[in-house]
Amino acid sequence: MAALLFFGALREASTGLPREIDLPEGVHTVSDLCAWLSARAPALGAALHAPGVRFAIDQRFAGPDADLRGAREIACMSALSGG
Amino acid sequence: MAALLFFGALREASTGLPREIDLPEGVHTVSDLCAWLSARAPALGAALHAPGVRFAIDQRFAGPDADLRGAREIACMSALSGG
Amino acid sequence: MTAMAQEGRVRVQISPEPFDPAAALTAFAAGRDGCGALASFVGYCRAVSGGVAVTGLALEHYPGFTERAVEAIAHDVAGRFAPIDVLVRHRYGEIRPGEPIVLAAALSVSRAPAFAAVEMLMDLLKTDAPFWKHETGPDGARWVAPTAEDRARAEAHRGRLRP
Amino acid sequence: MTAMAQEGRVRVQISPEPFDPAAALTAFAAGRDGCGALASFVGYCRAVSGGVAVTGLALEHYPGFTERAVEAIAHDVAGRFAPIDVLVRHRYGEIRPGEPIVLAAALSVSRAPAFAAVEMLMDLLKTDAPFWKHETGPDGARWVAPTAEDRARAEAHRGRLRP
C-alpha cells in the first residue's frame, strides 16, 4: 500500500482518484504508473505530460524508470515554482 | 590660479608641494603637469605613474591630453578604491 | 566576533509566517567580522503579474520533502562556493501582495562568490524547490509555472554541480 | 502602494555616519508592490584582510566630486536596466571592523536585472568612485588598491555603458 500524492495543477486534475494504492499488476515504474493513471483519468493523463512534471518516491526525486515496488509514498508534481 | 589636490597615496607623496598653482609656462595638459611635478618631486613622479592613477579637472574625470587652461581645481588621484 | 570557519554555515527555514527580511539579514550577518561581502535577494508577492492584478497567492508545499529539497539546494550551493555562509528563508501558505516570499543570502570574504551563490540559490529554488504558486486575481485563479528561461538557468547550474 | 513608474528612482547617500543596511533596505523597498525582486549587497569593513588583522579603516573621499561620481554611476546603471530602482549608500571617514561601508540595492519586476544592476554598481564603485581606503593594522597603515580583477570587471561594464 503506497500513499499517492498530487501537487499543483495535478492535484486538481486528480480529483476522484484514490489517495492510496496497491500497485496494479504490471505497474513497476513511474512511467508504468503514469500510463495506468492516464487510462483511468484522461484529463490527468494530459496534465501528467505537461512540461516540468516531476515525481518523487519516498520524498526523493525519481525519473520515469524509477522502481516503485516497496514505495510508501509516491508523489506526482506539476512544474515546481519556488523562489 | 588653480587649486591642486592630491588623494590617496599621492597625498602623502605630495607633501611640501603647493596646494595652489598658476600654470607654469608650457604646461597645458594633464601630462604636461605630471612632467612638471615629477621634475620638482621625483618621489611624486613615481607615484603619479602607479597603476590606476586618475585625474579630474573641475570635478570631472580627465585624460592625459585634457586641457588645464582655465581650470579652477585640478585633482591627482591614486587608484580609486570604493565599494 | 569569530572569523569565518572553513566550513560555512547553512541556515534554512521554511514556514508559513510572514517574516522581516531585514531582521533575518541582520541576524545572519551578526558576528561574522571576517566576512566582507553580504549578497542577498528578496522575492515579494507582486501586486501585478503579467499586467493583471494579484489579490492573493497561495503557496502549496510538500511537507517534509520541501524542507529536505531546499536544504539540499542550500548545501549544494554552499559546497560549490566554500567557504561561504548560506541562508534561505521561504514561506508557504497564504501570502498577500507586497509580502516577502523568499530570502536568499550569502556571506563571504569577497563579493564574487557571494553574488554567484545567491543567484544560483534563486535559480535552483525556482525549478527544484517543491512549491506551487496559485495566484488569485479578479478573473479567478491560475497556477504559476517557471519560464523557459528559469528552466534553462537551473539546468546550467545542475551541470556544474554534478558533472 | 503604487506600481513601479516607468522611470525608476535613484537614491544615493554619501555620509560619514554608520548606517543600518537592514533599515535602509526596508525603507528602499517600502511601497513598491509592483516590484517582485530586491537584490542587494553590503560590503563590511573586514576584521582580517590578506591574513592580517585590521584595526581600523579610514576612507578618504573628495567632497563634491565623490557625490557626483557615485550619482553618475547610479544613473548609468539605472538607465541600463530601466525600469529599475537603484540605491547606493556609502560611508567615508573612520570605520571600525565589522561596520558596513557600502550598500547597493536594486528593485525590479524580475530578478535577473536586479542582480545584474547590483553587480554592476559594485564593480563600478570599486574602480570609479572617488574613495581611498587606508587600512590600519598591527604593523602600520597601507593604502588599498583595486585588484587587477576589479579593474577588468569595471572595464567590461564601461564598454557596455558607452559603446
Strand segment tally of chain A? 5
Structural class of chain C: alpha+beta
> What does the radius of gyration of chain C come to?
16 Å
In whole angstroms, how far apart are the ends of chain C? 37 Å
Helix amount of chain A: 25-40%
Q: Give the overall shape of chain A, derived from the CA principal axes.
A: globular
* Helix and strand element order of chain A: EHEHHEEE
What does this 3D model show about the protein?
The complex is a heterotetramer, with 2 copies of chain A (about 80 residues) and 2 copies of chain C (about 160 residues). Chain A has about 80 residues and is α+β, with helices and mostly antiparallel strands. Chain A contains 3 helices and 5 strands. Chain A has helices at about 10-15, 30-40, 40-50, and strands spanning about 1-5, 20, 55, 60, 75. A 5-stranded mixed β-sheet of chain A has the order 2-1-5-3-4. In chain A, helix 2 (about 30-40) packs antiparallel against helix 3 (about 40-50). The model of chain A has no long low-confidence stretch (mean pLDDT about 95). With about 160 residues, chain C is α+β, with helices and mostly antiparallel strands. Chain C is built from 4 helices and 10 strands, in the order E-H-E-E-E-E-H-E-E-E-H-E-E-H. Chain C has helices at about 20-30, 65-80, 110-130, 150-160; strands at about 10-15, 35-45, 50, 50-55, 55-60, 85-90, 95, 100-110, 130-135, 140-145. A 4-stranded mixed β-sheet of chain C has the order 1-6-8-2, with helices on both faces. In chain C, strands 7-5-9-10 form a 4-stranded antiparallel β-sheet, with no helix packed on it. Chain C is globular and about 50 Å long. Mean pLDDT of chain C is about 90; it is low at about 1-5. Chains in contact: A-C, B-D, C-D. The interface of C and D includes residues 21, 112 and 115 of C.
